[in-house]
Amino acid sequence: MAHPDTERPDALDGHTHRIKTSCGSMFTTVNLQDGKPIEVFIRMGKQGCCWATFNESLGRLLSIGLQYNVPLDVLIKQLSGLQCSANTAYAGGKPVRSCSDAIAHVLSKYVKEDKEK
Question: Which of 58, 90, 110, 115 would you label with 100, given CA atoms 20 to 30 Å apart?
C-alpha cells in the first residue's frame, strides 16, 4: 500500500456503494491499490452543508489511516454501532444506526473479501 508521501497513481480501481441511512442515501467510494483499500470518499447531502463536510473529513481521515497501514478492522470497530438520534435504517436486512455505522458496513465488505482470498 502507498504511504501518504508516495505519489498517488493517476487512476485507481474502486467501487461506489449506496447505503441507506436514516438521513438519506449515502454514497461511499472505496479505491483500491494492490487489491487493498487505500482511499475513502463519502458523499451525502448537498455540498457545503454540515453533514457533507463532516463526511468528507471522515473520508479523509479514513484514507490517511489506511495509507499509514492502520488495520481496516480497527477502523471499522471504531465506527460500528454508533447510534444517532434519527431512526435506525436497514440495508440488506442489517440495522444501520448512523452514518458512521453505514460506513463501517461498507468497509466490512472489504475485510470479508480479503479473508476470502
Answer: 115
